[in-house]
């Protein structure tokens, strides 16, 4: 029986090796790391595979899934899966899997790198050195904001929006800075209330009190533009926004206005509303630090993600429950059975 896995773009070797060991016939569609895939390229190629292994850069919508009645599963290499129409996949009998947990610690580390970078103006100071502008030490050079309690001893407030695995890992790190930690996540209220590190706060209170607001929810209709102009206007003029989750959680044009007008002090962004594009004016502001969606980018983490996606892909091929399936209700459904029958003909 053929075991054709279509990998949309080049993934770390660990994933490709695992697929090869499982006797899969692997096609990597795009080898050029600087290029994505056109919808046409994907539509054209998907028909020939048994399992699709995409990245978060490819929209996997109903039309694409409907174009392939024998597709056995989707094994995405990413924890977020907002690029996939999971409801349509379930309706069509296609299991979808992601790569959770292995990237939690790396992403939380990077959230802190972002927070420290924007608070202490790290990239700008580095550029200053590299461009040979440092002539003499001065007491006003690159003044930033305190992250731990400053000389007045007042504890800083960290506001965590989205208290899943990554939000919790960010909170764990914040205890080392002796911060007061507020968390908001309506679906995790009981967990937050049982967690001694953090205090539950309504979003309005969190925005009003936090010195740093860091975003970690998945992108859903509820969280799209959760941080809009109104939310930004509730933040302190000394506060910073950090987003290592998904771009559309923030209304990016409203953020540019808030940063320009000094409504908030700064922002650190790893994700963008219309990635890789940025809202007009964002890139030239001097109170932002910007990164190319690399929060989980450690060698070890990306290798684990690739291996995990490959393991999910092999499970899809075998008709076994994928270890990280996000729509497990699909298994055993008549449409799922029908798909597997089609494939064995
Ligand atoms: C990265 O953004 C991921 O969802 O894995």
Short characterization:
This protein has 345 residues and is of the alpha/beta class. The protein is built from 13 helices and twelve strands.
Describe this structure in words.
This protein has a seven-stranded parallel sheet, sandwiched between helices. It has a five-stranded parallel sheet with strand order 2-1-3-4-5, with helices on both faces. The protein has helices at 13-21, 39-46, 62-66, 86-92, 104-120, 122-130, 165-174, 189-194, 203-209, 229-234, 252-261, 299-318, 334-344; strands spanning 4-9, 25-30, 51-53, 73-75, 96-97, 157-161, 180-184, 199-200, 212-215, 240-243, 266-269, 288-290. The chain has two domains: 3-101 and 298-344, Rossmann fold, CATH 3.40.50; 104-290, Rossmann fold (3-Layer(aba) Sandwich), CATH 3.40.50. The radius of gyration is 22 Å and the shape is elongated. The chain has 345 residues and is an alpha/beta fold. Helix 1 runs parallel beside helix 12 (299-318) and helix 5 (104-120) crosses helix 7 (165-174). The mean pLDDT is 97. Bound molecules: glyoxylic acid. Glyoxylic acid binds at residues 56, 78-80, 103, 296. The site of glyoxylic acid has 6 residues, from loops.
Write the layout of secondary structure elements.
Layout: E1 4-9, H1 13-21, E2 25-30, H2 39-46, E3 51-53, H3 62-66, E4 73-75, H4 86-92, E5 96-97, H5 104-120, H6 122-130, E6 157-161, H7 165-174, E7 180-184, H8 189-194, E8 199-200, H9 203-209, E9 212-215, H10 229-234, E10 240-243, H11 252-261, E11 266-269, E12 288-290, H12 299-318, H13 334-344
Parallel strand pairs: 1-2, 1-3, 3-4, 4-5, 6-7, 6-9, 7-8, 9-10, 10-11, 11-12
Helix pairs in contact: 1-12, 5-7
This protein binds glyoxylic acid.
């Amino acid at each position: 029986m053929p075991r054709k896995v279509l990998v949309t773009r080049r993934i770390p070797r660990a994933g490709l090796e695992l697929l090869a060991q499982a006797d899969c016939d692997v096609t990597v569609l795009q080898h050029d790391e600087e290029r994505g895939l056109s919808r046409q390229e994907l539509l054209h190629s998907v028909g020939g595979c048994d399992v699709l292994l995409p990245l978060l850069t490819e929209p996997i919508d109903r039309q694409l899934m409907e174009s392939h009645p024998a597709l056995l599963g989707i094994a995405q290499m990413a924890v977020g899966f907002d690029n996939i129409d999971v409801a349509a996949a379930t309706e069509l009998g296609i299991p979808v899997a992601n790569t959770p947990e292995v990237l939690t610690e790396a992403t939380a580390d990077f959230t802190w790198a972002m927070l420290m970078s924007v608070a202490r103006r790290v990239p700008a100071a580095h550029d200053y050195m590299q461009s040979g502008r440092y002539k003499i030490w001065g007491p006003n050079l690159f003044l930033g904001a305190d992250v731990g309690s400053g000389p007045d001893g007042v504890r800083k407030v960290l506001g965590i929006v989205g208290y899943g695995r990554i939000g919790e890992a960010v909170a764990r790190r914040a205890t080392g800075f002796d911060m007061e930690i507020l968390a908001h996540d309506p679906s995790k209220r009981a967990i937050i209330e049982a967690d001694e590190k953090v205090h539950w706060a309504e979003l309005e209170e969190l925005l009003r009190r936090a010195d740093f607001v860091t975003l970690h929810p998945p992108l859903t209709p509820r969280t799209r533009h959760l941080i809009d102009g109104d939310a930004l206007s509730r933040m302190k003029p000394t506060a910073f926004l950090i987003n290592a989750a998904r771009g559309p959680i923030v209304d990016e044009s409203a953020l540019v206005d808030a940063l320009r007008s000094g409504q908030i002090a700064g922002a650190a962004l790893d994700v963008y509303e219309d990635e890789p594009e940025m809202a007009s004016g964002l890139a030239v502001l001097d109170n932002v630090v910007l990164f190319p969606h690399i929060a989980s980018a450690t060698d070890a983490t990306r290798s684990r993600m690739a291996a995990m996606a490959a393991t999910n892909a092999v499970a899809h091929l075998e008709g076994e429950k994928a270890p990280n399936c996000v729509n497990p209700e699909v298994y055993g459904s008549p449409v799922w059975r029908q798909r597997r029958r089609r494939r064995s003909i």
